[in-house]
């Protein structure tokens, strides 16, 4: 199951006690989402969203085949190959023949590719600092606790999705 499917899958039974909470949480996190959108829009001017997604996937996967990157991005092989060609031409990744199969290509981030991802994180950190400086210490602490708990729950869901038909209590 893909991460997208793990997150968007809805259990049988219709509404749950958390339905209202989901609406409230969506509303409460619009500022966080807006901040990330602004940062991504600025990065898009530099590298584009598809290349940025590919760099992030390569960072998670490590050196991998073009087909593996395509699966991670849910892209067809020809599109993934063209995207990796552009990233290699820009010096953001390397492409080399796979040692086990001369017809396969291994992709890997370069230092320049990692620098793009580091810049993305640093830009978000800077903007988070700027906005959170206007919050009280107790609100900042509460936000950190809640965001950390949410991130842990998200990773639990996407890294260990419940099997279809199993009890996911």
Automatic annotation (TrEMBL):
Residues 1-21 are annotated as: Disordered. Pfam families: MarR. GO terms for biological process: response to stress. Residues 18-159 form the HTH marR-type domain. One of its GO terms (molecular function) is DNA-binding transcription factor activity. It comes from the Bacteria. PANTHER family: REGULATORY PROTEIN MARR, TRANSCRIPTIONAL REGULATOR, MARR FAMILY. This is HTH marR-type domain-containing protein. The lineage of its organism: Bacteria, Bacillati, Actinomycetota, Actinomycetes, Mycobacteriales.
């Amino acid at each position: 199951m893909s991460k997208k499917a793990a997150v968007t899958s809805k259990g049988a039974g219709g509404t749950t006690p958390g339905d209202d909470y989901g609406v409230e949480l969506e509303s409460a996190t619009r500022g966080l989402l807006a901040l990330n959108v602004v940062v991504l829009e600025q990065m898009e001017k530099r590298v584009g969203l598809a290349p940025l997604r590919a760099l992030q996937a390569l960072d998670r996967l490590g050196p991998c085949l073009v087909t593996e990157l395509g699966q991670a991005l849910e892209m067809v092989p020809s599109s993934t190959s063209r995207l990796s060609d552009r990233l290699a031409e820009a010096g953001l990744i390397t492409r080399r023949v796979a040692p086990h199969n001369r017809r396969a290509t291994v992709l890997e981030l370069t230092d320049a590719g990692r620098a793009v991802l580091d810049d993305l994180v640093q830009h978000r950190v800077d903007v988070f600092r700027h906005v959170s400086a206007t919050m009280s210490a107790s609100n900042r602490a509460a936000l950190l606790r809640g965001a950390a708990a949410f991130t842990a729950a998200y990773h639990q869901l996407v890294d260990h999705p419940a099997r279809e038909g199993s009890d996911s209590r």
